[in-house]
Amino acid sequence: MGTQETMKAVGLYQYLDAEHPESLLDVVIGKPVPTGKDLLVKVKAISVNPVDVKVRAPKAKKETSPRILGWDVAGVVEQTGPDCTLFQPGDEVYYAGSITRPGGNSEFHLVDERIVGFKPAALNFAEAAALPLTAITAWEALFDRLGLSRNQENNTGKTILIIGAAGGVGSIAVQLAKYAGLTVIGTASRPESAAWVKEMGADQIITHNDSFVPQLNAIGLPNVDYIFCLNSMKQHWQNMAEAIAPQGQICSIVETDQLLDLTLLKNKSVTFVWEFMFTRSMFQTDDMIEQHKLLNEVARFVDTGILRTTLAETLTPIDAASLRQAHARIEAGRTVGKIVLTAPEEL
Fold it and tell me: Can you give the pTM of this predicted structure?
């Protein structure tokens, strides 16, 4: 038997504060071999999301082998599993992967081809790595969960409130909602985040630190048809119930440790729905390949100028020190757009 090849990665054994020097460590692990529908991808750039921070958050559990995080990758297909039909070695790809498998903070990464897209041709690897998780989340929320039409004529006069519009998902959701023809109101709490949300295409900005309805009234809106919540559910639940139109729809990606009173939505016959972009990969749903199609459509949108990358800052190299820095910044809750880590040669 030959010796297994190794690769560099960033992993954790303990769940610690981001600033702790052992919260994320440079490690050497075995280089995986693709089987079934898996691709082996040479990782060129990664980005960091709130899910990374949540998974790494301090708890007593310990790992016997390093746990690898990272759910946004842009790279090049190195090798394909025997059942792959969508890609071949040399293809440039981008994807978010699966929360139930090792993440992409490593030199090479295994991913099921059904949740992988061809990288937008107009973007470099760093710009592309900023997109997959947030684009899948925003797309599924707007078009699958809320059922928005992609035909602008069907959305004439419709309004959407995006709570927490300056973050990674919000930045994409604003652009997609504008593309679909809606009037977009984004919430932002600081001048720099408000400016970013305007740059992404929002029609109006309100703050999520004050009641929504008086602010909506001030810009001539009695209520909104749709709400997409990307910020504290318990903080905004009452506000959302007041601001949503009768027969309106609310989608959230933010879990809550507090029971929410659904009866607040009853008299208005309001629909509430969750979006979790890992559902398809986690449960191996029959329609998993929809994320492959979705990412290819997002790439087309980027290449034709409908969507722009939400990359705000690039760190290099891809190592534990850079990742600890990115985690700490996201944990502070003051990031605008996306933080991407890239290999030095990709800059």
Answer: 0.95
